[in-house]
Amino acid sequence: MSDDHDESSALGRIETEVALLMRFGEATRRATGTAEHRVLDRAAYVILRHLADAGPQNVSALAARLNLDGSTVTRQVSALQRDGLITRTPDPSDGRGTVISPTPAGLQRMAAVQAARTRLYGDMLADWSPEDRSTLAALLGRLNQALINRNRPR
Amino acid sequence: MSDDHDESSALGRIETEVALLMRFGEATRRATGTAEHRVLDRAAYVILRHLADAGPQNVSALAARLNLDGSTVTRQVSALQRDGLITRTPDPSDGRGTVISPTPAGLQRMAAVQAARTRLYGDMLADWSPEDRSTLAALLGRLNQALINRNRPR
DNA sequence: CTCAGATAGCTGTATCATACAGGTACTTAT
DNA sequence: ATAAGTACCTGTATGATACAGCTATCTGAG
């Protein structure tokens, strides 16, 4: 085992903090916008964001991109459709496929949740310097990229 | 390096990256230590860590600390007991209470998962500078602290 | 053109984490 | 000694997810 004791403590701390973040993030999500209008669950939110970001696409593409099983995406999409947040249209170039598009309502709902969360972060990080915020955003981005690269090294 | 920029963009990016991290973190957990010996789920892992860290304690204390419902912790603890990872002993000073202690096997299992994850991070962050790792760890720590403070603003 | 194999999406079923409500046993204050 | 509070457990519900199997469709070889 090659143990770089100095660095492994940083790694250990990262591991700890990510685990904690997962726990608290879950609680926060549950608390962010309860009651009122039915909250978007984690997957629904990322689906809408991805649609808004990368344009209409089919279930398989979404599943691949979000690291989810196709059946999960199917059900999420069905729920989103039931709530009028996305529409399904037959893929004109492939009779098997369905193209998922966000509706205006879906985009709006997504934006509202996004804004609420951003506001929440602004609130929590009120006393952070702009540099620290920026650095955190950048490092998290790199961390996620590293995660993605590891899960799909192709 | 123009950081004299609208701060909300950093907040937005943080929001985005945290959401992504939640998604990928889930996948990572599922992949970390599959098959072989039954993985520790998120809650079980934090419970064991907390026990190792803060010593034996009762269900209510764990639930409060981990932001979980008491019933959830009860069930998690039952599962951990079934697997021989913790022991329950009656609280000598309170007939209603039960003190939860990690067993050697529990500590060892927890340490194994922890080591595997830390190794994984070391792997993924292989090309990061020690400074960046350290900074990420520190900023995540502050982020979690901010989350905790928000959830318990007493 | 026809048929075999691949692919897209859906459905059935299972698991797991979690919450809330209600019950039982014990403790504490009056 | 009784009422109120507390600790934990159990019943039940929800929601996210996976895997396996199904149907409809597409594509390519003959």
Overview of this structure, please?
The structure is a homodimer of 154-residue chains. With 154 residues, the first copy, chain A, is mostly helical. Chain A folds into two domains: 8-36; 40-151, Arc Repressor Mutant, subunit A (Orthogonal Bundle), CATH 1.10.10.10. Chain A is built from six helices and three strands. Chain A has helices spanning 5-31, 42-54, 59-66, 70-82, 104-124, 130-151, and strands at 57-58, 86-90, 98-102. A three-stranded antiparallel sheet of chain A has the order 1-3-2. In chain A, a hairpin with a 7-residue loop joins strand 2 (86-90) and strand 3. The first copy, chain A, is globular, with a radius of gyration of 19 Å. The model of chain A is unreliable at 1-5 and 33-37 (pLDDT under 50). The interface between A and B is large, with 62 and 61 residues. Chain A binds a DNA duplex (30 and 30 nucleotides) through helix 4.
Please identify the top-level CATH class of the largest domain in chain A.
Mainly Alpha
Q: What is CATH's topology name of the largest domain in chain A?
A: Arc Repressor Mutant, subunit A
User: What is the number of domains of chain A?
Assistant: 2
Annotation field: number of helices of chain A: 6
Shape of chain A: globular
Radius of gyration of chain A: 19 Å
Our estimate of the beta-strand percent of chain A is 5-15%
Structural class of chain A: mainly alpha
CATH superfamily of the largest domain in chain A: Winged helix-like DNA-binding domain superfamily/Winged helix DNA-binding domain
Distance between the termini of chain A: 27 Å
Q: Helix-strand pattern of chain A, N to C?
A: HHEHHEEHH
This entry's quaternary arrangement is: homodimer
The pair of chains with the biggest contact is: A-B, 62 and 61 residues
**Percent helix among the residues of chain A?**
55-70%
Q: Outline the biggest β-sheet of chain A.
A: 3 strands, antiparallel
**Spatial strand order of the main sheet of chain A:** 1-3-2
* Parts with pLDDT < 50 across at least 5 consecutive residues of chain A: 1-5, 33-37
